[in-house]
Design brief:
Blueprint (H helix, E strand, L loop, with lengths): L2 H26 L19 E7 L6 H11 L4 E7 L5 H7 L3 E5 L7 H15 L5 E5 L4 E2 L3 H10 L4 E9 L4 H23 L11 E4 H6 L9 H11 L4 E12 L4 H17 L1 H14 L2 H11 L3 H18 L2 H25 L3 H26 L17
Parallel strand pairs: 1-2, 1-4, 2-3, 6-8
Antiparallel strand pairs: 4-7, 5-8, 6-7
């Protein structure tokens, strides 16, 4: 096998295949969604409780609890102040939340906090059948809890809301807004319409009591939500999209403020690669599409990497005059363009804003590539780092 053929094969596997998959997912969202209910549906579903893990969140926890109350005052909220050195617990208690405190510096991390909180709530609250997980800076939109209740009443065991960005004005925040629409709206919408599991994204999850009792959070994982999703799919449990439920969180407006959390997320993707490949193998052996799709989704490289490598492959092919490699690069770029175009539509980003963001996108992609490099050398392992907006609205 000559060098040119090897390059083409590698480009197909590493660049073209994931780009085509993303393009197909974008097209799948154009398919009309099956209506499970309508606006006159009288089903309201079971009562819910909200669980929030908070680590030094005194600046945002009060606003989050007020936002929850403004949407649904009947929802009971539990907050675990985990290894906090600030007034998180005091502020949460003042806002009428049930406060749990954990002081265990030897065992830090969000998964450990969630396990403690889940165990205590399940023991104390015997009547609630499903629990919603929100971040400490979350802003659920009107109809959020009603959509969750109705989905649980229809038999869903695990749900994921649309987890999007709030108050995006600065260029970086707007680019991350687009990224969230791509990852946490477009892809879940596509998987839901294809009858597949939509994934768990941490903020805006809802799990039944039975699932919480059977599946504890993995305290050895940096992205406990993604790891749990793979376990659920392996057991034949599908996570559904609660399409009427939307939750938003503010994003940092500077690269410095966003770096810590971004590295943690990318670290988590690297850590899930082995589990993803195992799940794909299970899907191939059992001839089931659900584990195959969920496993491959983990293997899809970060979109910034796909854009950079697709552009690089195309430029290299044009420079050396390799027609086969050029076709792969152009096809990969086409998949990326379709994916982004659909994301821009979902985010309702107009042409004027799109042109401005395009100027920032080169810097953004470069930043993400630097973060990926840090991650490859162990960055983000074992850390629970929150994004810190410059100003909390």
């Amino acid at each position: 096998m000559n060098g040119s053929l090897v390059a083409v094969v590698l480009a197909i596997v590493l660049v073209l295949a994931p780009s085509v998959v993303l393009g197909i997912l974008a097209i799948a969202t154009l398919r009309r969604a099956k209506r499970d209910t309508d606006e006159h549906d009288a089903v309201v579903g079971p009562p819910l409780a909200v669980l929030i893990a908070a680590h030094d969140e005194e600046l945002v926890i009060g606003r989050t609890l007020a936002a929850i109350a403004s949407v649904d005052r009947s929802v009971y909220v539990h907050v675990i102040a985990d290894n906090c050195s600030d007034r998180t617990a005091e502020i949460a208690a003042t806002a009428s939340a049930c406060v749990h405190e954990r002081n265990d510096p030897a065992h830090p991390g969000k998964a450990a906090a969630l396990n403690r909180l889940t165990a205590e709530v399940l023991a104390e609250d015997q009547g609630t059948g499903a629990f919603v997980f929100l971040d400490a800076d979350a802003r659920p939109e009107p109809g959020f809890f009603l959509a969750m209740r109705r989905a649980v009443a229809r038999g869903a065991e695990a749900l994921q809301a649309k987890n999007l960005v709030a108050d995006a004005r600065a260029p970086l925040a707007r680019l991350r807004e687009l990224a969230f629409h791509l990852k946490c709206e477009l892809r879940p919408m596509a998987y839901e319409r294809l009858g597949l599991s939509v994934g768990l994204h941490g903020n805006g999850m809802c799990l039944t009591r039975d699932l919480l009792q059977r599946y504890p959070w993995n305290e050895g994982s940096v992205v406990e939500d993604g790891e749990l999703h793979l376990r659920l799919v392996r057991r034949g449990i599908r996570v559904r999209l609660a399409s009427g439920a939307v939750v938003r969180s503010p994003m940092p407006e500077s690269f410095r403020g966003a770096a810590g959390q971004a590295v943690r997320w990318e670290r988590g993707k690297f850590d899930l690669l082995r589990d993803g490949m195992r799940l794909m193998a299970i899907g191939l052996v059992s001839r089931r599409i659900a584990p195959l799709a969920a496993g491959y989704d983990v293997l899809i490289p970060p979109f910034s990497f796909l854009v950079a490598t697709s552009t690089g492959v195309t430029a290299l092919a044009a420079a050396i005059g390799d027609a086969g490699l050029l076709a792969v690069g152009l096809a990969s770029l086409a998949g990326c363009v379709i994916y982004v175009a659909r994301g821009l539509s979902l985010a309702r980003i107009g042409l004027g804003a799109c042109a401005r963001l395009a100027l920032w996108s080169v810097l953004y992609v470069s930043w993400k590539l630097v973060l990926l490099a840090r991650t490859m050398f162990g960055g983000g392992r074992g850390e629970w780092i929150q994004a810190r907006p410059a100003q909390v609205k």
